[in-house]
């Protein structure tokens, strides 16, 4: 165990831990984990090089090789997986699960990244990004492997593919309601065109 100066209630286990810096109520495990722990508090880093540069980080958890490697002015970050949340600066309230998840989310906040991803230079806020094919940048975005996408601000959801419904009762219900909608579009005043594949008919 290594004890650094100007710290209280810390647990350090491993070589080259907290070589420079100070902080309080931190738990650091693994070689080079929390190597530069500068004014960081209530953080847990587990794995080689995890939380290596923790500079004014608060309430952060990093589990995995180089997980949360650089945390500058970061609060409430959870990184689980090798190189997850690798580089963060002024990025708060993010969750990264999976190897390389949100690898370079420099300053986006309130995001959830799930799945193996090499996405680089991701900058955005209030997003849910799931899957290794999700590469969309921006704010208020939902992306599940780019197959299902949406926007939380506009309450819009898109299915970027063919929707199949295998339940017979649900198929009939949708078919009947789509038929009514079709008549409304044909004879009513509403001019918006809708299309839906139900497994029975495409309109």
Sequence stretches where pLDDT stays below 50 over 5 or more residues? 1-5, 182-203
Mean pLDDT: 81
**Total number of strands:** 16
- Rg over alpha carbons: 23 Å
Q: Structural class of the secondary structure composition?
A: mainly beta
Number of helices: 1
The main β sheet shows up as:
11 strands, mixed
- What general outline do the C-alpha atoms trace? elongated
Placed side by side, the strands forming the largest sheet appear as: 1-3-5-7-9-11-12-13-14-15-16
Distance between the termini: 69 Å
Q: Percent of residues in beta strands?
A: 25-35%
Q: Which H/E pattern describes the elements?
A: EEEEEEEEEEEEEEEEH
Query: What portion of residues is helical?
Result: under 10%
């Amino acid at each position: 165990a290594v004890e650094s100066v100007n710290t209280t209630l810390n647990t350090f286990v491993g070589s080259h831990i907290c070589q420079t810096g100070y902080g309080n109520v931190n738990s650091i495990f693994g070689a080079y984990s929390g190597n530069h722990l500068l004014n960081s508090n209530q953080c847990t880093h587990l794995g080689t090089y995890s939380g290596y540069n923790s500079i004014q980080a608060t309430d952060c958890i990093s589990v995995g090789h180089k997980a949360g490697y650089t945390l500058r002015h970061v609060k409430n970050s959870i990184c689980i997986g090798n190189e997850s949340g690798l580089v963060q600066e002024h990025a708060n309230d993010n969750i990264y699960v999976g190897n390389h998840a949100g690898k370079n989310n420099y300053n986006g906040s309130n995001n959830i990244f799930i799945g193996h991803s090499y996405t680089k230079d991701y900058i955005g806020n209030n997003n849910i990004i799931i899957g290794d094919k999700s590469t969309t940048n921006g704010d208020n975005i939902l992306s599940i492997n780019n197959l299902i996408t949406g926007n939380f601000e506009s309450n819009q959801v898109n299915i970027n593919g063919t929707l199949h419904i295998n339940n017979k009762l649900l198929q009939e219900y949708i078919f009947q309601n789509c038929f009514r909608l079709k008549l409304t579009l044909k004879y009513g005043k509403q001019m918006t065109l809708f299309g839906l594949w139900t497994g029975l008919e495409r309109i």
